[in-house]
């Protein structure tokens, strides 16, 4: 029974090896085994290795070829096309002790049919094993984060290592190597996911803080600009106001100067002093009558009850002004009224009567106010 089971296992192993060999021959040989028919037509992108009497003779090129029957034998048929070989999944340990499972695809081409036939028993299998060992060696030099960042450089390193070991002795050139899939342990995946989420939250917080900072800066700049504009507006307003006031003062001064000039010219004319004296007396009486109209606290002279003395004082001022020497103009002033018989114009006489009437009225009003005041004042 044991011998039967052993034979079954041996048979299964032989069948598995034959299947693998058949798949490798199918990948390597496009036309399969050929027979010596004397006249041979070699297809394009194929190389037929010929042995004569068991020894290498030559490599047939594409096209028409002739062989000697019995003596010449077609030993190997090599395909010169690019071949893609799947690299089985394998485990590798990174520099930071993380176990990965990686598989890939290897692209190669036969550049020397003689070396590919006699340099190695199974070129594809040898290149596959070399690719796996090289990949494990290269991954062991870098960390987990570098595996994803330096994926392209990792492929280039594997290709260079394979070419250094396979081109010269085996006649096979590796064109490129591509990593298909990288499988990480579950816990490592969870940790990386948490790291990614934390990084995204950090970026979100940073972006939000930068937005708040930019907003506050913009608000501060706006307030600063508003203050500057407001101060400039106040400055311009004050400048304009000062300029207007200066112009108004100048205009008032010019008007006052013109008025004084006219008054001076009028006083210098005939009976000008009489008119000026009358005007001064009227202003005195009017100012005294307005003392109690603007406030409840006033200062009165000691002789408030003596109405005649106050009127006499006003008339004394008038008389002093009238008794000043008069400067008469030799030429009459156009527009002034004519004088009466005694040299005083009729208009001034009328104004004196009005002044006397106003004085009497002011005297009556002052007497009435004085009687209504408290006795203790």
Question: What is the gist of this entry?
Answer:
The protein is α+β, with helices and mostly antiparallel strands and 377 residues long. The chain is 58% helix and 17% strand.
What tags apply to this protein structure?
single chain, 377 residues, alpha+beta, 3-stranded antiparallel sheet, 17% strand, ATP binding, nucleotide-binding
Report on the architecture of this protein.
It is a single chain. The chain has 377 residues and is of the alpha+beta class. It has nine helices and eight strands. It has helices spanning 2-28, 113-118, 123-139, 144-149, 151-170, 186-267, 272-289, 307-322, 346-372, and strands at residues 39-42, 46-52, 55-60, 63-66, 72-79, 83-93, 99-110, 172-183. β2 (46-52) and β3 (55-60) form a beta hairpin. α7 (272-289) runs antiparallel to α8 (307-322). It is rod-shaped, with a radius of gyration of 65 Å. The protein starts with a helix and ends in a 5-residue tail after the last helix.
Choose one word for the global shape: rod-shaped
Instruction: Write down how many β-strands occur, each being a DSSP E stretch of 2 or more residues.
Output: 8
Radius of gyration: 65 Å
Strand content: 15-25%
N- and C-termini, Cα separation:
155 Å
Strand numbers in spatial order across the main sheet: 3-2-5
Mean pLDDT: 75
Low-confidence segments: 21-31, 326-341
Helix content: 55-70%
**Which series of helices and strands comes N to C?**
HEEEEEEEHHHHEHHHH
Number of helices: 9
Structural class: alpha+beta
* Most strands sheet: 3 strands, antiparallel
């Amino acid at each position: 029974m044991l011998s039967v089971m052993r034979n079954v296992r041996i048979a299964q192993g032989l069948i598995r090896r034959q299947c693998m060999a058949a798949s490798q021959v199918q990948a390597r040989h496009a036309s399969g085994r050929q027979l010596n028919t004397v006249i041979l037509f070699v297809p394009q992108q194929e190389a037929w290795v010929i042995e004569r009497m068991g020894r290498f003779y030559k490599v047939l090129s594409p096209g028409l070829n002739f062989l000697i029957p019995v003596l010449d034998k077609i030993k190997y048929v090599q395909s010169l096309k690019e071949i893609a070989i799947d690299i089985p999944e394998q485990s590798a340990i990174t520099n930071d002790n993380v176990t990965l499972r990686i598989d890939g695809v290897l692209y190669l081409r036969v550049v020397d049919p003689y070396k590919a036939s006699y340099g190695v028993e199974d070129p594809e299998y040898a290149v596959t094993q070399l690719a796996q060992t090289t990949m494990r060696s290269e991954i062991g030099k870098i960390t987990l984060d570098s595996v994803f960042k330096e994926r392209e450089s990792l492929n280039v390193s594997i290709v260079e290592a394979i070419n250094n070991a396979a081109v010269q002795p085996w006649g096979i050139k590796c064109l490129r190597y591509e990593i298909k899939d990288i499988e990480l342990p579950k816990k490592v995946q969870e940790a990386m996911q948490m790291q990614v989420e934390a990084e995204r939250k950090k970026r979100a917080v940073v972006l939000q803080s930068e937005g708040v900072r930019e907003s506050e800066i913009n608000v501060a700049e706006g307030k600063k600009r508003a203050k500057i504009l407001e101060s400039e507006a106040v400055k311009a307003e004050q400048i304009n106001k000062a300029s207007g006031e200066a112009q108004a003062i100048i205009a008032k001064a010019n008007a006052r100067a013109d008025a004084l000039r006219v008054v001076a010219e009028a006083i210098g004319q005939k009976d000008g002093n009489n008119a000026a004296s009358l005007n001064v007396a009227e202003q005195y009486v009017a100012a005294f009558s307005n003392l109690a109209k603007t406030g409840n606290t006033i200062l009165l002279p000691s002789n408030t009850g003596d109405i005649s003395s106050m009127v006499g004082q006003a008339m004394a001022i008038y008389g002093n002004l009238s008794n000043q020497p008069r400067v008469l103009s030799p030429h009459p002033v156009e527009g002034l009224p004519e004088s009466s018989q005694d040299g005083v114009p009729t208009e001034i006489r009328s104004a004196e009567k009005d002044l006397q009437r106003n004085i009497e009225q002011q005297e009556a009003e002052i007497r009435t106010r004085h009687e209504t005041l408290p006795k203790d004042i």
